[in-house]
Specification:
Helix 2 links the parallel strand 2 and strand 3. The longest helix has 28 residues. The chain has a single domain, classed as NAD(P)-binding Rossmann-like Domain (Rossmann fold, 3-Layer(aba) Sandwich). Helices cover 48% and strands 16% of the residues. With 249 residues, it is α/β, with parallel strands linked by helices. Helix 1 runs parallel beside helix 2 and helix 3 packs parallel to helix 4.
Length: 249
């Protein structure tokens, strides 16, 4: 029986790398994103490279009902859901006194409520099936430091990503031993979006990273694949920092 995985925000960047890493482990992959063309291209690449089945769903991850409909469709198509990767998210660089209420709510919804939506939809299926399912949610170094760089994120984003850590710890108690749930806190990862946002601060950021470079999406994806598929994985309710030891945050 094939292992199945859902990846939100899977069209490009870290989400695409996670989908590719999971496919390399033999997982059939369901991608969810608003970027329909990029998502279709990613699904085609993954299927050709790894011989796995793929599904794609165009969706706003903040939509609770849509999350349930997608997860039900994946379960109906493949019979089970083994892995959920909550990767979808978006930064917000505005200071707290400049952000509007709607912008704050949207930041919380995209980064935190989206995790709730897909966990709420997938957990009943995971709890009812045989075996131990895995959930990996993408938090951020911002959740621990209060902000890596003002060009990328500020308070609303840090608050949302910190919420993921609390949700992860509490759900580990509720879902154990049927679901192992963990979070990852990436530091500065060289996605296309980040490169566009920090063109003027690249050198100063790298000087503050002990390994001397920005992270790559694959640096995060390799840990996601481990947490999602490694049979001898005795961790739940944890967060893991992937930042090259970013000591100047």
């Amino acid at each position: 029986m094939s292992t199945t995985a859902i990846v939100t925000g899977g069209a490009r960047g870290i989400g695409k790398a996670c989908a590719e890493a999971l496919a390399a482990k033999g997982c059939d992959i369901a991608l969810i994103d608003l970027l329909e063309d990029d998502m279709a291209a990613t699904a085609k690449e993954i299927a050709a490279a790894h011989g796995v089945k793929t599904l794609t769903f165009t969706a706003d991850v903040t939509d609770f009902a849509r999350a349930h409909a997608i997860v039900d469709e994946v379960a109906k198509a493949w019979g089970r859901i083994d892995v959920l990767v909550n990767n979808a998210g978006a930064p917000n660089p505005k200071p707290i006194l400049e952000i509007t209420e709607d912008e704050f709510d949207r930041t919380i919804a995209v980064n935190l409520k989206s995790c709730f939506n897909y966990i709420h939809a997938a957990a009943p299926i995971m709890l009812a099936q045989e075996g131990v399912a895995r959930i990996v949610s993408m938090s951020s170094l911002n959740a621990l430091s209060g902000g890596v760089t003002s060009a990328v994120s500020k308070h609303s984003y840090a608050a949302a990503k910190a919420g993921i850590l609390g949700l992860t710890r509490s759900l580990a108690k509720e879902f154990g031993p049927k679901i192992a749930i963990n979070a990852i806190c990436p530091g500065v990862i060289a996605t296309d979006l980040l490169k566009r946002m920090i063109t003027n601060s690249h050198d100063s950021l790298v000087r503050g990273i002990a390994l001397g470079r920005m992270g790559a999406p694959e640096d995060v994806a390799s840990l996601v694949a481990y947490l999602a598929t490694e049979p001898h994985m005795f961790m739940t309710g944890q967060h893991f920092v992937v930042d090259g030891f970013q000591w100047s945050c």
